[in-house]
Amino acid sequence: RTPLAGKVALVTGGSRGLGAAIVERLVRDGAAVVFTYAGARDRADALVAELTAAGGRALALEADSGDVDAVRRAVARTREAFGRLDILVNNAAIARTAPLVDVADDDLERMLAVNVRGVVVATREAVRHMDRGGRVINIGSINSEYVPFPGASLYALTKGALSGFTHGLARELGARGITINNIQPGPVDTDMNPAGGPNGQYLTGLIAVQRFGHTREIAGLVAYLAGEEGAYVTGADLRIDGGFAA
Ligand code: NDP
């Protein structure tokens, strides 16, 4: 089954974690996928080699989401490589946590640049060229609405921004047959938030199903939204959090 055959996707931050699982799933579903990474060239190359060996079409680009020109180029190069762009997954983000009074100006600017401006620029550049059936899928966070611990106000702010952006832009894209949604995962086991890390046990206790999410579970929701059946979902914040915020 290749429900995304003929489609072209761009996934930001696809070398590890959730982004890598999304890349794998979209390729398996038949899409040609370009993904960006910030520094992990070896991992990115290894992922491309693995997917290509299995008959998929994938390409990795180094592109810092905090760099406007790099983001713009990544969108252009996706279209050059595979001829079109149907699906944009805004996944790349950083999480620098600290009490607000200890947040340095540099951290503030970097978080806004990567988590917010990078998403806006990628989306603007991508939707210029999207045809009917296009999809923008943001990876926000349940922390935009529920933050049961201190130190994450800035991270929550950046993820809340994606929610508002999604609602607003849905009204511009709807008539063109393009959807935009904001997936809000709860704790998912990745380098950013390892289930075995210092906060793992505490967080697990707050999750209704008593475990961290698997990256493939989030990738499954992305695949649903990207596919034809997802066409009637737009402007939505979609919780996928094991009942963390229930
Ligand atoms: P990881 O830190 O494990 O992976 C981040 C990925 O993004 C890597 O591929 C990394 O590339 C890339 N990346 C980081 N910074 C940049 C940048 N400036 N430009 C381009 N790419 C970049 O994160 P997760 O997989 O955990 O998170 C993915 C998304 O899911 C994020 O938006 C995060 O906020 C969100 N999320 C995560 C949750 C969790 O519990 N894990 C919960 C809710 C939301 P490289 O390998 O080169 O460093």
UniProtKB/TrEMBL annotation:
Domain (Ketoreductase) ranges: 7-186
Record keywords: Oxidoreductase
Superkingdom of this protein's organism: Bacteria
The keyword Cell division is annotated on this UniProt entry: no
Classification via InterPro entries: KR_dom, NAD(P)-bd_dom_sf, SDR_fam
One of the Pfam families matching this protein, by short name: adh_short_C2
Keyword Oxidoreductase in annotation: yes
Family of the protein in this entry: Belongs to the short-chain dehydrogenases/reductases (SDR) family.
Name of the protein in question: 3-oxoacyl-ACP reductase FabG
Species for this entry: Nannocystis punicea
